[in-house]
Design a protein that fits this description.
It is an enzyme of class 4 (lyase). It catalyses: 2'-deoxyribonucleotide-(2'-deoxyribose 5'-phosphate)-2'-deoxyribonucleotide-DNA = a 3'-end 2'-deoxyribonucleotide-(2,3-dehydro-2,3-deoxyribose 5'-phosphate)-DNA + a 5'-end 5'-phospho-2'-deoxyribonucleoside-DNA + H(+). The protein has 11 helices and no strands. The N and C termini lie far apart (78 Å). Helices cover 51% and strands 0% of the residues. The longest helix is centred in the middle third of the chain and has 19 residues.
């Protein structure tokens, strides 16, 4: 007698994915709005300053190298005693990697950063007479120095109208939006091309401070933002 095989259960039809609505991203603000945005930022802070504490171009360079993945406050706490004994490449070399490491131990990645500080100090002494070079290509080959660090040094130490794009400026530029791009390098190139010339020298400071204290990542302070009426960000924070 043939045994009857059980009928396999029918499979439930797979639910079709629900198409997500396409949300149109706002277009970047126009030239007149850009002019007004920077006019307001300047009015709120006519003479913006870097929050990193430094004594000269060399200590600025070192401070910016140390600030990678660290807060300006933590860097300032570490560099105050460091720069008191080593504020030139020669003095930093004399201090040595081990002692530099001890000074910056409270900063993230301090082992690698100590090596970079000594290595770049040696290059400055051997190739540039102990001076920080003013050419971007010479800065960017120094250990621990990339596009952002070079741009900060050129802007703050030598008055070159560059815009060093960090996480804050990247967010602000894409959020307002001033210039929309997927990488910091492209945002930098875009901003340097469109920021009105009278504001270009200090734009780096205004945008980074604006992103740090008002246009925050998680909960932007839209109710007190000086450019809220010009910003096209669709998810503004409302007053409680």
């Amino acid at each position: 007698m043939r045994t009857r095989q059980p009928t396999p259960p029918k499979k439930s039809p797979r639910a079709k994915p629900v198409a997500k609505p396409i949300v149109a991203l706002p277009a970047p603000v126009g030239a007149a709005e850009r002019e007004e945005i920077f006019a307001r930022l300047r009015a709120a802070d006519p003479e913006p300053k870097a929050e990193l504490v430094y004594r000269n171009p060399f200590t600025l360079l070192v401070a910016v190298v140390l600030s990678a993945q660290a807060t300006d406050k933590s860097v300032n706490l570490a560099t105050a005693p460091l720069f008191a004994v080593a504020d030139t490449p020669d003095k930093m070399l004399a201090l040595g990697e081990e002692r530099v490491r001890d000074f910056i131990r409270t900063i993230g990645l301090f082992n690698t950063k100590a090596k970079n500080v000594i290595a770049l100090s040696r290059i400055l002494v051997e190739r540039h007479g102990g001076e920080v070079p003013r050419a971007r290509e010479d800065l960017e080959v120094l250990p621990g120095v990339g596009t952002k660090t070079a741009s900060v040094v050129l802007n703050v130490a030598f008055g070159v109208p560059t815009i060093a794009v960090d996480t804050h400026i990247f967010r602000v530029s894409n959020r307002i939006p001033l210039f929309v791009a997927p990488t910091t390098d492209k945002v930098q190139a875009g901003l340097e091309a469109i920021v009105p010339e009278p504001y270009r020298l200090n734009a780096h400071h205004w945008l980074i401070l604006f992103g740090r204290y008002i246009c925050k990542a998680r909960k932007p302070e839209c109710p007190v933002c000086p450019i809220a009426d010009l910003c096209r960000y669709p998810m503004k924070t409302v007053a409680a």
